[in-house]
Design goal:
The complex is a heterodimer of chains A (about 120) and B (about 110). With about 120 residues, chain A is mainly beta. Helices cover about 0% and strands about 50% of the residues of chain A. Chain A has no helices and twelve strands. Chain A has strands at about 5, 10-15, 20, 25, 30-40, 45-50, 60, 65-70, 75-80, 90-95, 105, 110-115. In chain A, the strands form three sheets. In chain A, strands 2, 5, 6, 10, 11 and 12 form a six-stranded mixed sheet that branches. A four-stranded antiparallel sheet of chain A has the order 3-9-8-7, with no helix packed on it. Chain A is globular, with a radius of gyration of 14 Å. Chain B is about 0% helix and about 50% strand. In chain B, the strands form two sheets. In chain B, strands 2, 4, 5, 6, 9, 10 and 11 form a seven-stranded mixed sheet that branches. Chain B has a four-stranded antiparallel sheet with strand order 1-3-8-7, with no helix packed on it. The mean pLDDT of chain B is about 95. The chains are: A mainly beta (about 120), B mainly beta (about 110). The interface of A and B includes residues 4, 102, 103 and 107 of A.
Chain lengths: ~120, ~110
């Protein structure tokens, strides 16, 4: 069963507008972490934001925030005030903690294009 | 600060050849892993290690071997390359085996098997 689902293969957003990238996850662990990474066209993987399963507040990092809805098992990334440099591939990932393996599982990604 | 270093950055192999993709980190991370990235498939876990001498299979381990003799190094061996192994390979490491630490990635190796 797919553990991380990103249902938006591609998204467009106008510069300076906000955009939400969807991510749902599936786990039976009580302890887990959720991550978002950015992959620009140059290919490197850039860590953006983290949310722990026990964190009660949504994580924020500058223009990035994570809309964490535990009951719905969703961890959507919100980018505010989009910039042209935000055009990239975005990956949602989960790391389960209870099993002891601590593997990172990634979704298939969402390609975001910011329009001028 | 080198971080995670992968070599080579590009490689072309003929079907049936073997090779080793190198990965080294200088952050004293316990956890290391290898992924392959294919269009529309995201990053799929090949093998991972939670410490020196300990390795385990991920989602797509067939055709690949790993070993972890030191904390710093985690090489990935392709035993007999096949065109289906054409992909971009990423090595990643993290500080601990706890859930709240992000993975640090190498720059990737673009492998083409002809």
């Amino acid at each position: 069963a797919q553990k991380i689902t990103q249902t938006q293969p591609g998204m467009f957003v106008q510069e300076k507008e906000a955009v939400t990238l969807d991510c749902t996850y599936d786990t039976s662990d009580q302890s887990y972490g959720l991550f978002w990474y950015k992959q620009p066209s140059s290919g490197e993987m850039i860590f953006l934001i983290y949310q722990g399963s026990y964190d009660e507040q949504n994580a924020t990092e500058g223009r990035y925030s994570l809309n964490f809805q535990k009951a719905r098992k969703s961890a959507n990334l919100v980018i505010s005030a989009s910039q042209l440099g935000d055009s990239a591939m975005y990956f949602c990932a989960m790391r389960e903690g209870d099993s002891g393996t601590y593997k990172y599982i990634f979704g298939t990604g969402t390609r975001l294009k910011v329009l001028a | 600060n080198a971080g995670v270093t992968q070599t080579p950055k590009f490689q072309v192999l003929k079907t049936g050849q073997s090779m080793t993709l190198q990965c080294a980190q200088d952050m004293n991370h316990e956890y290391m892993s290898w992924y392959r990235q294919d269009p529309g498939m995201g990053l799929r876990l090949i093998h991972y290690s939670v410490g020196a001498g300990i390795t385990d299979q991920g989602e797509v381990p067939n055709g690949y071997n790993v070993s972890r003799s030191t904390t710093e190094d985690f090489p990935l061996r392709l035993l007999s390359a096949a065109p289906s192994q054409t992909s971009v390979y990423f090595c990643a490491s993290s500080y601990s085996s706890e859930g709240n630490t992000e993975a640090f990635f190498g720059q990737g190796t673009r492998l083409t098997v002809v």
